[in-house]
Task: inverse folding
């Protein structure tokens, strides 16, 4: 099954190697495609809507046809690692070709993109940078793969 991570911006310094490592690990279990779209210069006030709209347009243009679109947002549902593994397992046997996880930039995701999403998922109630959210998502996709295959990486109950 194909999973896509669609993200605004590229990781820098501290996160770059860790993200690359967990995306490599996750790719052992899933066909993983990572697409980075250009970030807009952050604007305050009314310019924020323009930034969000431009980034959403670039992200939505990269969503593969037929996949479930999952927006990562603080207002989303909280999923356990086991729930994510079950979801991906079930998705593999349904008629959908996969899932695309979308991570916004410094200002998050536009309302338009959030309305377009099939699901909304929250990684934390805390505010995370898009780089940290990408790292956490990559690790959780790797963990989900180990859960599905019954490998010993996951020791938690959730």
Result:
């Amino acid at each position: 099954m194909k999973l896509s991570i669609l993200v605004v911006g590229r990781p820098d310094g501290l996160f770059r190697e860790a993200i690359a490592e967990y995306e490599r690990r996750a790719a052992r279990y899933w066909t993983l495609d990572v697409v980075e779209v250009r970030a807009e210069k952050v604007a305050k006030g009314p310019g924020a809507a323009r930034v969000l709209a431009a980034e959403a347009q670039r992200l939505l243009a990269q969503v593969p046809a037929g996949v479930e679109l999952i927006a990562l947002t603080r207002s989303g549902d909280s999923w356990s690692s086991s729930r994510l593994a079950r979801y991906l397992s079930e998705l593999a046997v349904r008629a959908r070709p996969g899932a695309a996880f979308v991570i916004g930039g410094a200002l998050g995701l536009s309302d338009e993109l959030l309305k377009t999403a099939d699901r909304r998922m929250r990684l934390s109630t805390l505010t995370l940078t898009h780089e940290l959210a990408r790292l956490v998502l990559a690790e959780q996709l790797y963990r989900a793969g180990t859960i599905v295959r019954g490998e010993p990486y996951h020791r938690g109950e959730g």
About this structure: The CA atoms of residues 86 and 148 lie 8 Å apart.
